[in-house]
Specification:
Elements lengths: L6 H16 L6 H18 L1 E9 L3 E5 L13 E4 L1 H9 L4 H6 L3 E4 L14
Parallel strand pairs: 1-3
Antiparallel strand pairs: 1-2, 3-4
Helix pairs in contact: 1-2, 2-3
Length: about 120
């Protein structure tokens, strides 16, 4: 089981990313990684299960949503996006539908729409 990211560390990373965005500079990779993993952790806590795999390469992936467990090969329900997009949709900065329409989210499978689970409240 991956190491749990403490709430204070996750919030600090999100704050650092917001500060970098406000200053017009790229966030530190460590902050991006910590914030991404923290938000994936919150999603897994909110919607435990093994039906949908949410991938945010290279930072992490979780399986969420109750239903049939997937054990081999590519899962039937997969969501993939970059870290910046994940942070934006997970925190409500960007709507799921807008990011998907812009091609920033690759989602396949009948249960891969996470609109009802987002935004998270870190």
């Amino acid at each position: 089981m991956p190491r749990k990211i403490e709430t204070a560390d996750g919030r600090a990373a999100l704050g650092a990313i917001s500060a970098a965005d406000a200053a017009g500079r790229a966030p530190a990779r460590t902050d991006l990684a910590t914030a991404t993993r923290y938000l994936l952790q919150l999603l897994a806590e909110k919607a435990p299960g093994h039906t949908v795999e949410v991938r945010v390469p290279p930072f992490g992936a979780v399986q969420v949503v109750e239903g049939p467990r997937h054990t081999r090969g590519t899962p039937p329900n997969v969501v993939e996006m970059d870290g910046a997009t994940w942070i934006a949709v997970a925190t409500g900065g960007t709507a799921w539908a807008d990011a998907a329409a812009a091609g920033r989210i690759a989602a396949s499978g009948t249960r891969s729409n996470l609109t009802d689970l987002l935004p998270l409240r870190p």
